[in-house]
Amino acid sequence: MRVVSGIQPTGNLHLGNYLGAIRQWVAMQHQAESLFFLADLHALTVAIDPKELAANTIEMAATLLAAGIDPDKAILFNQARVPAHAELCWLLQGTARMGWLNRMTQWKDKAGKNREGASVGLFTYPVLQAADVLAYQATHVPVGDDQRQHLELARDIATKFNLDFGVELFTLPEPFISPAAPRVMSLRDGTAKMSKSDPSDASRINLIDSDDAIAQKLRKARTDAEPLPDTMAALAERAEARNLVTIYAALAETGADAVLAQYAGQGFGAFKPALADLAIAVLSPIRERLTRLLDDRAAVATVLEQGGERARGLAAPTLLAAQRAMGLHV
Ligand code: TYM
């Protein structure tokens, strides 16, 4: 078993990243050899400011450490420092099909109507993501539901490569989607996922938000006037209410039905302050650790450097085997 996953170092980590991915990373690092990385190469597929990218990479790495990633257990690094990712990505470009990439919903969403003006990297983004996990023979990839399609593509690429070159080289990676919070939704719109790119900061809870900001965002979260029912099924048509109950259950590490058993019949006037208290209890220790870690950015950079060295060692044999299979070693 080998666990691999990544996150783009853009903006702040939010509650969706935490409940959908990072909390699983923290748990899985104790169960299997794990590699987690800042996907700085993926961040290059849209316009970037180099200084900002470098600062975000350190800050995001510090946030992962604050959230519980332990560099003695997991390998933490930034993707750009392990050249095997970009090299294997190029080798896989001959295997990936235009039609497969054209079907990617993230490509369609991000390019929008301006496909001609989108970067080539935005289109081939999922091939790099496939290289990220295939380079390490990952068996499990803990991600939120929005990455499921990219993982399926990685499996398709691995299968076709193995078949085309007559090798049993790449392991097919299994997506591991958080059962508790596969898709945390925006606090302003229960039909949109919570996202770093939402222009409204009130739509998400950032891991660096103060206690007051967390309480205020939850107080203002969009809801309805009905009291809470006693089953999740009864929330089918109430997206915002369902989202808040799901967040509560995920934070409390309990089931949504148990939450409803406690709050059935009550309105959001009672539920929201309880949710805010819970969110603050979980998130404020992370924020405090993060503040301390950011006092010594050089130490965070050292963690990434050491992680990069270990990751280079682990990726090298697979890259070499791929080159051999393709006739690149003469
Ligand atoms: P990114 O940076 O958008 O998100 C990082 C992780 O957080 C999850 N996530 C969510 N989960 C639940 N609810 C939400 N609202 C929510 N928003 C984000 C994402 O599913 C992800 O697991 N392409 C990836 C980064 C990547 C990667 C990889 C992941 C690059 N290479 C290889 C896995 C394996 C991305 O942009 O994630």
Commentary on this structure:
The protein is mostly helical and 330 residues long. The chain has two domains: 2-181 and 297-325, Rossmann fold (3-Layer(aba) Sandwich), CATH 3.40.50.620; 201-292, Tyrosyl-Transfer RNA Synthetase (Orthogonal Bundle), CATH 1.10.240. The chain is built from 13 helices and five strands. It has helices at residues 15-28, 40-43, 50-67, 84-93, 98-102, 105-111, 120-134, 148-164, 211-220, 239-252, 256-263, 268-293, 297-325, and strands spanning 2-7, 33-38, 75-78, 140-143, 174-177. The strands form two sheets. The chain has a three-stranded parallel beta sheet. A two-stranded parallel ribbon has the order 4-5. It is globular and about 70 Å long. The model has no long low-confidence stretch (mean pLDDT 97). Bound molecules: tryptophanyl-5'AMP (TYM). Tryptophanyl-5'AMP is lined by residues 5-8, 16-17, 20-21, 39, 42, 129, 132-133, 141, 143-144, 146-147, 181, 183-184, 193-194.
